[in-house]
Design a protein that fits this description.
The complex is a heterodimer. Chain A is of the alpha+beta class. Chain A has helices at residues 6-26, 71-74, 80-87, 95-110, 116-144, 149-169, 191-214, 217-223, 231-236, 242-245, 253-256, 278-301, 354-359, 362-365, 371-381, 385-389, and strands at 30-35, 47-53, 56-63, 178-179, 182-183, 321-329, 332-340, 348-352. Chain A starts with 5 loop residues before the first helix and ends with a helix. Classes of the chains: A alpha+beta, B alpha/beta.
Chain lengths: 390, 181
Amino acid sequence: MTMLSERQQLSYIAAQAADARLNVELETEGMTLNIGPQHPATHGTLRIIARLDGEQVVWAEPSAGYMHRGYEKLTEVRTFPQVTALINRIDWLGSFANEVPFILAAEQLMDIEAPPRAQHIRTILFELSRIANVSLFLGDLGVQMGAVTPVFMAFRDREYVLNLIEGATGGRFHPNFDRIGGLKDDLPKGWLDETRQVMKKLRNFCDEIEDLLFGNEIFQSRTRGIGVIPADVARQYGLSGANLRASGVDWDLRRDQSLPLAYDKVDFRVWTHPDGDSWARCWIRLQEVREATKIVDQLIETLPPGPVMTKVPRIIKVPEGEAWVSTENPLGEMGYYVVSKGDLGPFRVKIRSASFNNISITPWVLKGVYVPDIITILASLYFILGDIDR
Amino acid sequence: MGLVDRGRLPAPLTKLFNIGRSYSMWVYQWGLACCAIEMGAAFGSPRYDVMRLGVIPLPASPRQADLVVVSGTVTDKMAPAVKRLYEQMPEPKYVISMGSCANCGGPYWDSYSVTKGVDQIIPVDVYVPGCPPRPEALLEGVVLLQQRIKHEDMGARWRGEGFKPIVRESEPIVVGGGPIE
């Protein structure tokens, strides 16, 4: 190595100093990015406050409560039959699924059970609301990544499911069909045939989405390996539903729990995925729609005859006691802890909704991701604001 | 547009402008709660297809919008944001209040955290009742609003006279609430 001349040494030092100066100039200050409360990607009015370094998230915090409507307090001033009209609106995409755990809890307290036909129809409508919920997720997923076509397809095929729910219950969106001790009505004539056809359409929709969206290279590169949640972290944060199964945890309340619903009479598979990234969460939900269509098909074939309502008193008074019932809702575990003091209405209802726990992982999972990935990770976590804030 | 600013526009030209405005409404999708999904079905689905009515449902920001559909429950925490978004819209601007919650509080009439009606904070042109209203009901609300715009005095709107009072001088329209004009 030759010795550098004085002139060379000086120029070397000058170059170093210039580099250092440039680094000082280019040093990025922290910036706070506020997403929401009104933002198309937040599925409602969620607000995310993210502190950025360049394009990377250093710290992120969800700010919930913009849709807090006070359900737990309102249920205390409603009678038991009135509560279902209210709690329909918690997870507004799968409305019927919200009623079922509450009604089951009330039935548990009253020590009655719905007749088998009512249990079957409940399960069918439960799965239909799952399809209505998750099919919109599949369409909405495209919008978050810049593809607008899937959402049109989702709305097109979701309409068929909503028509079915409307045909059976009279309510397109919020059925309020479940009663303590059974159902309001029996299924209308010709409903079963139509359901079979619609389930075929929905399976086609799933195939289309799989080809169009999941097979898309951009979609894959935006989701694969991004927002990875390991199984133990997912458990610690209390994730449930597809978010937990996407992390490889084989957990499904439909299968693991014995409730007076017809899930023990059907054969279905609980899908899990080992990756735990955004892709896995989306893929699990796609498979869930397929499984739900199969469950509906099987239940239609084995629909037992009989009444849809047991004998219940005209004025419902639930005896004193406490009950906890939770079911596997489209978004995850949803449960009601009902305390009754023998009155017309519940004394206290604690609502455990899935999205609140699912969203609580955002500070952990958003740490270190890039700004555009915030949107895809939030989309893949799939929350509904009514379900977070209640 | 100096003539418009001074409120001196010939009647035939007013009519022409009003037809143009009523059939090129950019509507900002203000999804708040359950009704947002029905609004999405009305505006974003092939079955209801709102573009055939001359409504364009996808502006990027409220600053580009003429019409806003407040769809869903407005809570007391959300109300300042709703007002701020409304104030960002350029005049002339119109508001459709969709669903019982935005109209009057709906099923949360006795809740401690819900604003009982969005008309407490911003003026409303059309009320669409229902919980949630069907997409067809929202489309009818849009059609009724277009009828109102066609009979409007543009000069007054451009001077911002419709902005001052909380409740506009003209009666708000209620879908299914009888004939208008």
